[in-house]
Amino acid sequence: xxxxSQQLIDAANAYSAHNSGPGLDHEWYPADxxxxxxxxxxxxxxxxAQLREALEAxxxxxxxxxxxxxVALSRLFPSWIGVDTDEPDWPVLYVELPTGQVSWHFSPDxxxxxxxxxxxxxxxxxxxxxxxxxxxxxxxxxxxxxxQG
Length: 149
Prior knowledge:
3 helices, 12% strand
């Protein structure tokens, strides 16, 4: 009859034989269940850190794309850069659409996209994120009508 520690090692070895991860054998994986748990937790922590870094890179790239689209929109309508006193390091791009004001905070990493934009303009009108996207949808609907008409 095998001990619980040996069962844990055998299960881990069977798992690692079919999955990526550390080779869990007697030399690498301690027979002591507490040490085995700690070793497994350390490996999982390292994997989570790598996944977190990858996710952060994807999110950063998505925000950069969004910011590039916002800047393109700002070239078509009156726009300016403002400051949010709650987050002064994050410039705010304001665009005055025919359907109302919209705005986006920019990460300091993306501030280079704002070069050449004017500074100062109409203060924030208090719009919410939902109102911003409703104004963009109304603009898109109006543009679609013009194209079809």
